[in-house]
TrEMBL record:
GO biological process: mismatch repair
PANTHER family per record: DNA MISMATCH REPAIR PROTEIN MLH, PMS, MUTL (PTHR10073), DNA MISMATCH REPAIR PROTEIN MLH1 (PTHR10073:SF12)
Amino acid composition bias (Polar residues), ranges on this chain: 157-170
GO MF, one annotated term: ATP-dependent DNA damage sensor activity
Protein name, entry field: MutL-like protein 1
Every DNA mismatch repair protein S5 domain range: 11-133
């Protein structure tokens, strides 16, 4: 490199502006003869720097060398603190007594080993980690402007008809973990775009689905909401107390990701919101139950199941000792009483939950 005023300028001229822009100064030293004696200064890349390969320029006593243990240790710190894709750039100059350096590790004397190497590496590691954690708080993101797609093609030449768009001719498939939602109305921005559908094997598809389809017939109910006055009142109460601003947010939001196990990040235009998923889910389920009340898909069994037998199965399931038959008479009485009760309520069960019970208790 040209003779420059600073090391940072030298790094800029050799490795480029993008590297030099994302470097932080780092220093560490120790003067305790019982543990280690060294002085280190240099530069390490911050959280905004992204590279696929680690670059480490290491000078020990002003000689360009390699120290695999130190390089690996710093790489571990980066892997634990920053995203996996990011590999660091490190420039380090270490000065220590010449007798503490073993240069006979490698025939070319390129690789070196240090006296009290573990202690020195540990101290450098902790300095790098604290510096990285501080830099992570001041992370910056590059803004991208979205070019509006013209709805009408400009050219009508043969070439444009053959290749309507560069993206159309070659659709690049983005890995699932790198998908980013940008628009809630765009198909790529909807949540089902993130679901990976596993293709079923022929055996599973044929045996499983046909068996289920033949034994279970679903009864579709075309009506949207229940005719019950109480349900209608509850639904109108929800509609009356609806917050228009919040409704707009939920309708047009873009899901970013989970912030923790309760809060999700939602983007609306240029605003970012934290949404309590637990509360939202409860409210969603409550409103869905009201709107679908008494209009479930009924499942029809090929042979109607007798209620007394079902209740007996449930009672035996709760037994701590399944082999014990002492309370069988009591269980039969309980099953008989409950069957009668359910038969009395059969009209309500049929209207509310599509559970049909005949006069025989099936």
């Amino acid at each position: 490199s040209v003779a420059t005023s600073s090391r940072l300028d030298a790094i800029r001229s050799v490795y480029g502006v993008s590297v030099a822009r994302n470097l932080m100064k780092i220093e560490a030293s120790d003067s305790d003869p019982s543990s280690s004696v060294f002085e280190m200064d240099g530069f390490i890349s911050n959280s905004n720097y992204i590279a696929k390969k680690i670059t480490m320029v290491l000078f020990i006593n002003e000689r360009l060398v390699e120290c695999t243990a130190l390089k690996r240790a710093i790489e571990i710190v980066y892997a634990a603190t920053l995203p996996k894709a990011s590999k660091p750039f490190i420039y380090m100059s270490i000065v220590l007594p010449p007798e503490h350096v073993d240069v006979n590790v490698h025939p070319t004397k390129r690789e070196v080993s240090l006296l009290n190497q573990e202690v020195i590496i540990e101290k450098i590691q902790s300095v790098v980690e604290s510096k990285l954690r501080n830099s992570n708080e001041a992370r910056t993101f590059q803004e991208q402007t979205i070019q509006p797609c013209p709805s009408v093609p400009i050219g009508t030449s043969k070439d444009s008809q053959l290749n309507p768009s560069p993206s159309g001719s070659k659709s690049l498939k983005v890995p699932v973990h790198k998908l980013v939602r940008t628009d809630s109305l765009d198909p790529a921005g909807r949540l089902h775009a993130y679901l990976q559908v596993k293709p079923l094997s022929h055996l599973e598809r044929d045996s499983g689905l046909t068996a289920v389809r033949s034994s279970v017939r679903q009864r579709r109910n075309p009506k949207e909401t229940a005719d019950l006055t109480s349900i209608q009142e509850l639904i109108s109460d929800i509609d009356r107390n609806c917050h228009s601003g919040l409704l707009d947010i939920v309708r047009h939001c873009t899901y970013i990701g989970m912030a923790d196990d309760v809060f999700a990040l939602l983007q609306i235009k240029t605003h970012l919101y934290l949404a309590n998923v637990v509360n939202l889910s409860k409210e969603l389920m409550y409103q869905q139950v009201l709107r679908r009340f008494s209009h479930f898909n009924g499942i029809q069994l090929s042979d109607p199941a007798p209620l007394p037998e079902l209740i007996m199965l449930a009672l035996k399931e709760e037994d701590l000792d399944p082999e014990c038959n002492e309370n069988d008479d009591l269980k039969e009485k309980i099953a008989e009483m409950n069957t009668e009760l359910l038969k009395q309520k059969s009209e309500m069960l049929d209207e509310y939950f599509c559970i049909h019970i005949d006069i025989l208790g099936n």
